[in-house]
Amino acid sequence: MTGKSRLRPWMPCVILIIFGLTALGGLQNGSRLPALNIADIVERVNPAVVNVQIRNARGGLDYGSGFIIDGHRGLIVTNYHVILAALRMGSPILVSLPDGRLTQASVRGFDEATDLALLEVAVEGEPLPAVTLGDSDALRVGDWVIVIGNPFGLDHTVSLGIISAKNRSWPGSPFNDFLQTDAAINPGNSGGPLINVRGEVVGISTFASTVGTGLGFAIPVNILRDILPQLQEKGRVTRGTFGVRVIDTTPYIRRRMGLKGENGVLVVAVKIGSPAARARLRRDDIIIDVNGTVITSASQFNRLIAAEKPGTKLTLTIFREGRTYKVTGVVEAETPAHGTPGGPPLGNDRPDH
Predict the structure, then answer these.
(1) Single pTM value for the model
(2) Of the four, 161, 182, 250, 277, which is 20 to 30 A from 331 by CA?
């Protein structure tokens, strides 16, 4: 035995593991974070997560989740599809609060198109614990996220994963760019929070694919931010419309059309008599920007138009047959829709039914 130190074959692996654990939660979104401590985050957020119970047509209970956004006024966010049966049958919506009370909630507002709903419960004594809303646009693929909810009636269940992808579209969801995560989202998680490493809510757990595993989807919290003032004030959401249907462009589409760059959406239909028709938009036009805002996806375009008040004048930059043009039009009020929500169709892909 000599005094010289000798590096064992397994030591580099140990060093890498220790370094990885120390750096976990390292640099995200340009700022240094402390080492990721799931237990601390959950301990802070969990008291603001609630369980939602709905009596179904069979006499049993359907479960969902929600989270408190205003502890003074008792405001709770959940999915519209979680409370849909109660709205149809006029049955009570019961919420299990952090102090153990099972209380009836009233519906403050809901929006079918984004599959979001706002509930209200009575606050007795001290304000209820509430979450902090984060910025879903700041999320990056690979960021750690936490899901808390009520899967299969198992209250306050926690799962950990990452953001697997952003801007996932779904048929019938014109305003949602879903966040995809491999954190477990099961029946009953719908309406619960998706949380970042700062303990902020960045998404609303909504559904999971029944094909494969680790395919959960959440509504970005910034979509909730967009409509929350209207839900609080009016109970419903009034949107603008331009009468045009668009899809995302692909490198192949842009190359075939002769468009350089990576932005723009392709016009696939123009409604007769609509503002888009009066602006002389045509099928196969590519919309590049609206009032100076660069268009990067169909969902972004739909949300931008929807957020405008009726009567707002729009100037669109379009690409047509190798040339760029400017067209103008005026936003009209959207005709209210009724029936099923604008999210994924109710059925096997919906976790609470």
Answers:
(1) 0.76
(2) 250
